[in-house]
Here is the input.
Amino acid sequence: SLRVRLLSKKKPEGWAKVEGPLFEFEERLRVAVDDPHDGKRKAESSWPIHRIHYEKNRFIYDLYYRQQAISRELYEFLVREKVVDA
Here is the structure.
């Protein structure tokens, strides 16, 4: 879980801006993984997981590059801790 992995880490300034949405993405991802995949092809069952992963990465990307609402330090922290992809 994201909360457990980052519990002991010192978080950069601006963490409060992204904390709530990241935990929401994590919860949506947990629900998508537990969703039954009866009657779906193997690839179809993973589509919602990939979609949520993409949305999370895009959310952080937009905050950093387009809106410039988070610092470089926070962005690099999220990449280093493998919360988002670079």
